[in-house]
Amino acid sequence: MPELPEVETIANGVDRRIRGDRIVSAWFSKHKEPFKTAASALAAALPGNRVRAVHRVGKHIVVDLESAGDQNRKARSEARPRDAKSLALESPRREARTPGRLVPEPSQLIVHLGMTGRLLVTAPDVPQAPHTHAVLHLASGRELRFVDPRRFGRLALNTAEAFAGPGHEPLTISPPDFARLFRGRKLAIKAALLNQKLLHGVGNIYADESLFRAGIRPTRPAGRLTRARLDRLLKSLRAVLRAAIRAGGSSVSDYVDADGEAGFFQIQHRVYGREGQPCRVCGNQIRRIVLAGRSTHFCPRCQT
DNA sequence: AGAAGGACCTGCACGC
DNA sequence: TGCGTGCAGGTCCTTC
Questions:
Q1: A3 catalytic residue (yes or no)
Q2: What is the pTM of this model?
Q3: Which bases along strand C come within 7 Å of a protein CB atom?
Q4: Which candidate, A125, A115, A95, A96, places its Cα nearest to that of A6?
Q5: A47-62 confidence digits (pLDDT tens)
Q6: Domain boundaries of chain A, sorted by first residue
Q7: Is A2 considered catalytic here?
């Protein structure tokens, strides 16, 4: 289940492997349309683009693209004295000029892994995994593959300004802004943490773990928490996410190369998945309830 | 508008 | 062994 740390690790791994590469062609499975942007539009728009960088925004992997037009312009502007001929060849507009084919130039490819999505960078002769929904063929000969058994993942083109995601980044939001997110809200703090429009990147596991570390009962109404407790929650959340990113970064560096999951990082869970087991702090039994439709784990003594 | 709940989707663990 | 059932959860959509 990729949450922020996993997505960050994967984005970094993909970045190292395909930055600067060029998309030659794109293939999409016909097995139902699993994408936000139509597969036909993706297939038409992606080839010819160069990968400038890959990074994370919330739980999204963002592939910054440089269109063929951009690359030509760059090359021309770098070339010294321009003669009249090269100027004459210059295209006046950014968009593709092929008549009748209006393909917008994408600036970014947005990937959401959903629950089971994987991005793999492989050699072309590596057998295709089941549930492979997209393959980008790169100029280097390698392939970027999108595999997603449960098909909760999404691909989309972003042609507008830089993708910023739906909510605030938990790693950079200021404590006052963090506190403001929950003001007046009656829903449980756990449900609020999962709401990507408020804070993006936090999923079920890290919500439970950060609430435990902050000593806050997941059912507590978000708007009723004191500023001090919210400050503590933000600190716990950041500590958990940072620790996970560090561990993920070291233990899963091959993730995108290999056949996937092997050794995916797990933080030392203190409550998640530990129903009935003793709390690592006080020894009380960890309880599991369903909150916001999600299994929720907490220590009834440590979390108030 | 905010909140709650179901749908989507497949693999896996479990019980009979 | 094999089948049915329930569970996992990120996000979208509908309903209240």
A1: yes
A2: 0.85
A3: 7-12
A4: A115
A5: 999 999 999 999 999 9
A6: 4-158, 175-298
A7: yes
